[in-house]
Amino acid sequence: MFAARLSSRVARPMAQRLMSEAAAPAASGNLVINFNLPHETIYDSKEVASVIIPGLAGEYGVTAGHSAIVSQMKAGVLQILHTDGGDAEKYFVPGGFALSHENSVTDITCPEAVKLDDLDAATITSNFADAKKEFDSAEEGSEAKAGAQIDMEVNRAMAFALGTTIA
Amino acid sequence: MATEKQLFQQINSTKNIMKITSSMKMVSAAKLKGDENRLYAARPFNKWATTITGPSTPMENEVEFANIPDNALIVPLTSDKGLCGGINSFISRGVRTMCGVLDGSGKKSSVVVVGDKGRSQMRRMVGDKLVSAATEVVTPYSFDLSAAITAEVLAAGNDYSCIVILHNKFVNSATYIQEYKVLMPMASTGDDEAMVEYEFEPDIKNEVLEDLGEYLLCSELHHALMEAAASEQSARMAAMENATKNAGEMVDKLTLQYNRARQARITTELIEIISGASAIEG
């Protein structure tokens, strides 16, 4: 019994490590990202210089050789710095997870993401107002109230990403 | 022997069926295109989950079912609509075998089924294990749907030792195979602590792991649903093509019979006229 437990304890992380190694580490020493949505492949095994991830506990940057970390993302801006320099490519993400593995591969997974340039400030403001109205009218402690609160927070984060503040 | 009129009606109805099956084939071919595109987006999306959970196991080796832990929740993905070859029967048979093997080794198991076809078959085969069913799901499948099904599966109970997703995997438009994947819960402490080599941010591993686990299930289910949808459509396409071909052969055969019957009638009539005429002459 003890042996079985021990072996499963050793075998699983080992299998994991083997598997993540199989997922093709960067040959050139760059960071490799997988950034994909359920309905769209944005970057699959793409080499980049670094990414800046909006973690729930604060923004942080990931470059090649980053220690293994699992991070829950908040609604915010995800920045990708490409190897050829230039401005960061900015995406707005509503939340999700970022997993940096030991082999310089980082998986970013979220249900939706839009380019920051595609956000429309006027629509955000009106959506925020709608969500706020719903939040105020919804019953205390109900699912609708929680949903409206999430709506408000995401819209506020979107406005913040565009450099405006809505209350 | 059918009469001439019966044969004629049979030919007509077979021709109508042929029209239906051939248009169903074309509809499936068009839908398959969309399902394939969605599948090719879902595969890279689920890559992060595969690095944690490992690849799926093909369902050819029944002995391996014994490795599934006690008190497992089996989630077979089937379709709501029929006329798509054996895809649902293969899955149902797999669940029956799996439950049989688990019963044999004294392990408990429960089933939450997705799809109407699977539900009716499962109720017959393993009715005592069926906990709930998600049927009449909206097509085409989306991430929202995957999230809803995840909620359904999670609502079935959290006290299961693992979740086994069982589905058809799309290989190409002529082939699909049955696969299953065992998703173990991720413990944040103890001997079986998951993801030990990772740091967690925010630094509350149990909470992050719980969220991650639910999201992982959703991601895996999404991928599996997409595989199942593409398999269903490709299987329907193949089934309808065969049906159209068979109907064509049947029409040919019936036409031959019909012509023979008509010729026989004409010959009989001629003989009657000739013999009548010769009787008058004679």
UniProtKB/TrEMBL annotation, chain A:
PANTHER family documented for this protein: ATP SYNTHASE DELTA/EPSILON CHAIN, ATP SYNTHASE SUBUNIT DELTA, MITOCHONDRIAL
Annotated InterPro entries: ATP_synth_F1_dsu/esu, ATP_synth_F1_dsu/esu_N, ATPsynth_dsu/esu_N
GO cellular component: mitochondrial inner membrane; proton-transporting ATP synthase complex
Superkingdom of the source species: Eukaryota
Entries under Pfam families matching the protein: ATP-synt_DE_N
Protein known as: ATP synthase F1 complex delta/epsilon subunit N-terminal domain-containing protein
UniProt keyword annotations, A-Z: Hydrogen ion transport, Ion transport, Membrane, Mitochondrion, Mitochondrion inner membrane, Thylakoid, Transit peptide, Transport
Cellular location(s): Mitochondrion inner membrane
MF terms (GO), sorted A to Z: proton-transporting ATP synthase activity, rotational mechanism
From TrEMBL, chain B:
Topology in the lipid bilayer: Peripheral membrane protein
Alphabetical UniProt keywords: ATP synthesis, CF(1), Hydrogen ion transport, Ion transport, Membrane, Transport
Signal peptide: none
Compartments in which it is found: Membrane
Transmembrane segments: none
A cellular component term, taken from the record's GO annotations: proton-transporting ATP synthase complex
PROSITE patterns: ATPASE_GAMMA
Superkingdom of source: Eukaryota
A Gene Ontology molecular function term of the record: proton-transporting ATP synthase activity, rotational mechanism
InterPro entries: ATP_synth_F1_ATPase_gsu, ATP_synth_F1_gsu, ATP_synth_F1_gsu_CS
The family this protein is said to belong to: Belongs to the ATPase gamma chain family.
Protein name: ATP synthase subunit gamma, mitochondrial
Organism lineage string: Eukaryota, Sar, Stramenopiles, Ochrophyta, Bolidophyceae
